[in-house]
Each structure stands twice: as structure tokens, then as C-alpha cells.
Amino acid sequence: MKSSCTETARLLSESRDRRLSLRERIHLRFHVTMCRMCHVYARQLSALSRICNAASEHAPDCCPGKLPEDRKARIREAMKD
Amino acid sequence: MGSVAGVNVAVAAHMALEHEKQAIDPKNWVDEHGDALFRFAILRVRNEELAADLVQDTFLSALKARDGFRGGSTLRTWLTGILKHKIIDHYRKNKVEIVETDLAGDTPMAILQHAPALSPRWDEAPSSLVESREFWTVLSGCLSKLPEAQRRAFTLREFDGLDSDEIRKVLEVTPTNLWVILHRARAGLRRCLETNWFGNEG
Questions:
Q1: Co-location of B158 and B121 in the same domain
Q2: What pTM was computed for the model?
Q3: For B99, phi and psi rounded to 5 degrees?
């Protein structure tokens, strides 16, 4: 485990939230090409984003869980007022 | 025959219109959209009581503002937009303190643990994952384990697609801290999913 892996993991995340500097991009490109572990980590972060996209889109239909019946009744009552 | 078909078309059109009116009638909102809105909220706030409160607020606000609903989008989309604002309001009114674990220095092993073996399941199509009830249980569990500040930042970013500037205004954190919080959230969630889902061939 090299300390540059720590730096790479951080930059891989931050590249999703801000534009990296040229220096940072070069570090990332170089390290991810050379280091199998960080290469895998990069792919997993991409997969995580895709999964969250799908989860967000499908949650209203697929996510288990229901608004409890007593809450539904309370909301219907409140909406009558 | 032609006139009979014409009548049928007219009847069908009338029924479709009636159906649409019923769907828009607030009396039917809770039955038609209550569960969907609740699931939207529970995925983010991880607390049933709070999620139900936010859904109730959403319906009451929507009822007051329903003249503002002009079709164009579906009623579901409109209600979901209101709920999204309610959740952000809740974050603004109920600040969480940024704790040590949100910003603590990286421990490389903790972040990259298990990474060398990329389970092929990480490449599984997300659309098939979200059809699995077991996957939802694991994902929900992993989101629940994240510290509150990390979960708020992460869900605003990855579920709702807000950009860094929007999120740091809601959470009142500096850009640098936000990036660290998001980094730690991704690392934690990646690791939790690897341990409890992807790395587990069972």
C-alpha cells in the first residue's frame, strides 16, 4: 500500500465533484494506469454512481416500504381541513 | 358500423378524461402517490417517522399550491419536486455537526480494502440490481450506516444530482470539507456494498 494510493482514492472521488487541476489529472492518469488496486477502485466508484442513479430513479416503484396505513388516514384527514 | 366505432372512440376518450380528472383529484393523491413519495423519502432520510412527516407536509403544501400544477409534467413528478424541497428544508433547519469521522485522515486499507479483487457483480446492470429486494435491503442498510452528514451530502450528490455549490450551501460547509465528506461517504458505501453484496458470491 503506497501513500499515493490514498491520494489517488481522494482524487478519484473529487474528480466527480470538481474540475481537477492539470497536475492532479496527470497524477491520476499515471497512477490509475500503473496501479491495479486504484484501477479497480476507479471502476467501482463509477459503478457506485450508476447504481445510485438507478436506485434514485426506481426507488418510488421498487424500494420496499409503504407509508403506514394510520399515517395515510391522518394525512387524508389533514387534507380535508 | 362506422357510427358505433365512433361512439366507442368517444366513450374511450371520455373515460380517459375521467380517469385523468380522478388522478388529479386530491382525494386520490394519498392512495396513488403516498407509497412512492414515502419510498423516495425513506431512501434519503432513513427514518420512517420523519419520512412520513415529510410526505404529509408535501401533500398539504401541494394541496395549497395545486392551481400551480399545470400538467406538462406528471402529477407524480410535481409532487416529488415538492418533497425534494421539503427534504432540503429539513436539512437546513436541522443542521448536523460535522464530526471527526466525516473528515478524519484516510486510512488506505480501510478505503481500498477488498478492492484488488473486482467482483464481476460490480459490473452487473444497475437496472437488474434494483429489481432485487435483497439488494435494496443491503443498500438501505449501508446508507443507514453512514454518518448523517455524509449521507446527506452523498444522497444530494448521487441521488438528486445537485452540484457541489448547491450542496455546500444547504449543508453550510466549505468546498474542501464537502469534497472530503463525499470522498469518505463513497469509500464507506463502496466498502459496505463490497462486503455485503458484491464480494459475497452466495
A1: yes
A2: 0.87
A3: -100, 170
